Amino acid sequence: TPYVFEEKVVGGAVPKNYFPAVEKGIQESVLKGTLAGYPVVGLKATLVDGSYHPVDSSELAFKMAAILAYKKGFAEANPTILEPIVSVSITVPDELVGDVMGDLNKRRGRVLGIDPSERKKNWQTVVAEVPKAEMSDYTVALRAITQGMGSYTYRLVRYEEVPAAAAQKIIAAAKSDAQE
Questions:
Q1: Could you tell me which of 62, 40, 67 has the C-alpha nearest to residue 51?
Q2: Contacting residues for 36 by C-beta, under 8 A, at least 6 apart
Q3: How far apart are CA 78 and CA 29, in angstroms?
Q4: What is the C-alpha separation between 115 and 160, in angstroms, rounded?
Q5: Consecutive 10-residue averages of pLDDT for the chain (180 residues)
Q6: Please, are residues 63 and 17 in contact by the beta-carbon 8 Å criterion?
Q7: What is the value of pTM for the model shown?
Q8: β-strand 3-7 against 43-47: which pairing, if any?
Q9: Please, are residues 99 and 126 in contact by the beta-carbon 8 Å criterion?
């Protein structure tokens, strides 16, 4: 869920007709995060107080106030970048299991198990979890490791926090792209 919005305004400090404008400000803000421009997930915003002026208040003013509050609060919340993690099943001949596992380790993968292949005798299926970003060239790599005999499938299982060094590179790249 990108965000949850709730209001707990007491005493009418903010008229109810401005609540949707505040939510719209949050809704727009989560589309592009402040770290690297990626969408934000897991945010809870609660409107608890504010002030209203009969002449100067408008929907746009409340929307902008929500956007500014989001930026300030988000910076103080110590946000992190998440990356997709995929579950991979790789079927290879017995003698190549070690090479495949070594390659998965280089890709920041975690081997979860090795099972005998259901389809082929003397073949194994390696089950692992790997960041999806590390799988972009896997077809070529597996072909090279197995002389074209291995096969694999993968599916998204969850998102995890990107390691600090990788996150810094992502943020730096996003900032340099923004300056261009």
A1: 62
A2: 81, 170, 171, 173, 174
A3: 16
A4: 26
A5: 83 82 91 86 86 82 91 86 94 94 94 87 94 93 93 94 88 79
A6: no
A7: 0.71
A8: parallel
A9: no
- Cα–Cα distance for residue pair 141/136, rounded to 1 Å: 10
Buried b (16+ CB within 10 A) or exposed e, 11-22: eeebeeebbebb
Going by C-alpha positions, the residue among 47, 156, 150, 40 that lies closest to residue 91 is 150
> Helix (H) and strand (E) counts for the chain?
5, 6
Length reported for the chain: 180
How far CA 49 is from CA of 5, 28, 46, 158, in Å, comes to 14, 20, 9, 36
Which tens digit of pLDDT belongs to each residue from 144-154? 999 999 999 99
